[in-house]
Amino acid sequence: METSLLMHLLQFSDSAFPVGTFSFSNGLETASYLGIVHDASTLEQYTRSVARQGAYSDGVAALLAYRAAKDGDYDALSKVDRQIMLFKMNDEARLMLSRMGKKLAALGVHLFNNNEIFARWIADINAGDTPGSYPVAQGIAFALAGLSEEELFASHQYGVINMVLSAALRCVRVSHYDTQRILFELSSEVPSYYEKARTMSFEDMNSFVPQMDIFASMHEKGTMRMFMN
Prior knowledge:
By secondary structure, the protein is mainly α. It contains twelve helices and no strands. Helix 1 runs parallel beside helix 9 (149-171), helix 3 runs antiparallel to helix 9 and helix 4 crosses helix 8 (134-145). The protein is globular, with a radius of gyration of 17 Å. The chain starts with a helix and ends in an 8-residue tail after the last helix.
């Protein structure tokens, strides 16, 4: 791997990458408040569920968007964008994807010198013609940067897992040692997720973790507000 590509991969996967991941917890705030996630063991179980859900929904969308961007097929990109947002059952999930997606799209315009795809996509987002989801933005960015599908999927999974674990340090009784061990353990499961996700289409996507949608609905009406979801 060329050093510059490795640097791009690290940049796009960095928790400090300015797309707003720190604002979201993927439902962990409610799970913690209810006492369902209360220690390292329950946090690992919860994070694994989030990672698996993300792999077979947002992860698939990111891969399909990546291929569309590589082919220069803007209509296919728009279809992926609409489909993944329709796939989300709760408002907070849609809020998370659209806010992070728009931030990455705006950033992508600057990183890739006003690239035609990103420029057209951010214009359509601002006009309300497309939702502007984060997985699609990731797919475009990785395709333009010359990174591979595998690297895109690894970065996506790292982001999903790290989002939950970073939030956990603020609302669950765990330490950095706990969260880093969980990240290390769950990373070994990502290749098997990729082998399945890379062959999946819209019709194959699945995301059956109903507890997370219940947590989101409770959070929408709750008084807690450390995170946006």
